[in-house]
Amino acid sequence: MDVFLHLRSCSRDYGGIMSALGSDSWWKKTLYITGGALLAAAAYLLHELLAIRKEQELDSKDAIILHQFSRPKNGVPSLSPFCLKIETYLRMVDLPYQNYFDGKLSPQGKMPWMEYNHEQASGSEFIVDFLEEKLGVNLNQNLTPQERAVSRAVTKMVEEHLYWTIAYCQWVDNLEETQKLLAMSGPLSDTLKWLLSHLNGSMVRREMYGHGIGRFSKEEVYTLMEKDMRTLATLLGDKKYFMGSKMSTLDATVFGHLAQAMWTLPGTRPEQLIKGELINLAMFCERMRRRFWPEWFVEVEDLYYDGDSESSVGSGSPTGMLDLGLFSRTDTLDDSDASSHSAVHTHTHSPDSDHSLFDSDVGTGSDNDIQLKEELMPDLEV
């Protein structure tokens, strides 16, 4: 009798265990815990991969420390329009800076952000304001009040509207191609790239929905993108820069966004537009690239769209960029520009040589390559 009762008790315990295993809540909790652990482990590994200069002590005394995402595989300096905007802006105003691709967000959760004399500025607009206030640089000083108003209106169209359509093309519609651009190494690099790209894609979808533009269909999103790009093309016209013959902050803003369509989205709608019908935008991007990113070398075939997407993805893709570390643009200026900057900024030299870091660290392609590009695009003013 005792044996029978013992067996009956064991049977009840076994049935309770199986019932618990079969319940939805138990499996959901297990999946959540396991998934959370995997995400935490992946986030830790990703942080270790991105923090390539983590061991160095940051000292922002009289030095601009620019925190941004790591360089992608191809020659585009950044997959973030805002990171590319700020780094281009620093080159336009000829301020030496030091890049830190540590993957660390600002206290506000923003990227890029900068440090200077132990002060921080986060968000591209506030970074520009900070530099104007602290270092006295201003690309908009020659603009009239009306031109400043137009510049701000166009900036908001680009950063608050066009940005989301380009992000949709990068991280939703062409996620697999964008994933290939991520630069990671190590045994788990493929897994981390897949995880990072899909997490970012999900975040873009969610934020686009909250913005409102994500509630439209794919075709409607691309329609909005095309309207914005045509507006920019009309505003630029045949001018050298968006506000005329002189550079302004708006040029850095537009370049940071259009460069994504120009060099990271082969065969897509934005690339077809910018390298085809709206060719003046492509010429603007190439003008900016040549003047402020001479170490960012691209093939001639990558400057226009010929309708064959295979050729755009082939051997003509840009090569990887070298990191300048501490950058000064003084030696890259035309004579007319150098005279206007020499009274304000001095050239930064490498501590190990008499050459600038720009001269010593980067090769910009052969003379034949440059001559070939000039022959194919004779009307491009630099």
Order of helices and strands: HHEHEEEHHHHHHHHHEHHH
Count the strands? Answer: 5
Share of helix among residues?
55-70%
Work out the strand percent: under 5%
Largest sheet: 5 strands, mixed
Mass-distribution shape:
globular
Mean pLDDT across all amino acids: 75
**Order of adjacent strands in the largest pleated sheet:** 4-3-1-2-5
Alpha carbon gap, first and last residue? 99 Å
Explain this structure:
This protein is mainly alpha-helical and about 375 residues long. The chain is built from 15 helices and 5 strands. The chain has helices at about 1-20, 25-50, 80-90, 125-135, 145-175, 175-180, 190-210, 220-235, 250-265, 270-275, 280-290, 310-315, 335-340, 355-360, 365-375, and strands at about 65, 95-100, 115, 120, 325. Strands 4-3-1-2-5 form a 5-stranded mixed beta sheet. A hairpin with a 2-residue loop joins strand 3 and strand 4 (about 120). The longest helix has 29 residues, at about 145-175. The N and C termini lie far apart (about 100 Å).
Compact overview of the structure:
This protein is mainly alpha-helical and about 375 residues long. The protein has helices spanning about 1-20, 25-50, 80-90, 125-135, 145-175, 175-180, 190-210, 220-235, 250-265, 270-275, 280-290, 310-315, 335-340, 355-360, 365-375; strands at about 65, 95-100, 115, 120, 325.
